[in-house]
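call fold(seq) -> C-alpha cells
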Amino acid sequence: MSKIILIVDDDDDLRKSLKVGLEKDGFSIIAAESAETAAKILERVSVSGIVLDRMMTGADGLSFLKKFRGEGDLTPVLMLTAMDGAENAIDGLSSGADDYLAKPFHLKELSLRLNNLLKNSESDEPKMPAGLSFTDGEFFVGKKLFALSEPEKKILLEMARGGTIQLPPMPAKRFRDKILANLKNVDIITVRGKGYKLIGVKK
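ret:
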C-alpha cells in the first residue's frame, strides 16, 4: 500500500521532526510550509494522506480544507491544532477532516492514526458498474482508458463503494455529465442532506 503523506505546517522544526519520525515508520513524506505551497504540490502529486495544521501564516488549515473538499478531493486528512476544546475539533471535522489531533502529541499516536486512516480509506472493495473496471490506478470503460482527473477518480471510487459525496453544484454537474456520457447503466442521484450517490439503472 502506498503511504505518501503530505505534511502542511508553517513550523519548520515540527515539519522536520515529523518527516524524520514518520519516515522511520515507513511513510514517504512531502512537506509544505503553507497551504498555498500544498495546493501547488497537489496539482502535480497524488498523495495517500495529509497532515494539516489548522493555524498557519497565510491561508489557514480550515480554509484550505474546505476548498480542497469543495473540489471533490477525498484524500484522508488528519488535522493538527494547538487549540483545545471540543468546539475546535467539531469545526475541523465538520469542515472535512477525517481525524483531529491536539498539540502536543506523541509521534507514535500520529503514526497509528495515519495508518488507520489509510487502512479505512482502502478497506471497502469498490463494486464497479458493468463495463467499468479499475486497475493500476486507472479506470477503463471496456478496454478504453476512461480519462479522469485524480479527484474524479477518488470520487468515483468512493461512489462505487456505496458512498454519498458532497460536491458544489457545478463540479457535480460536470462530473455527472462525464460519467453518464460514458456509462449507460448508471445514474447519479441527489440524496437530500447528504450529497450525490451512484446507482445502477436498467436500460
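The domain at 4-121 is CATH 3.40.50.2300 (Rossmann fold).
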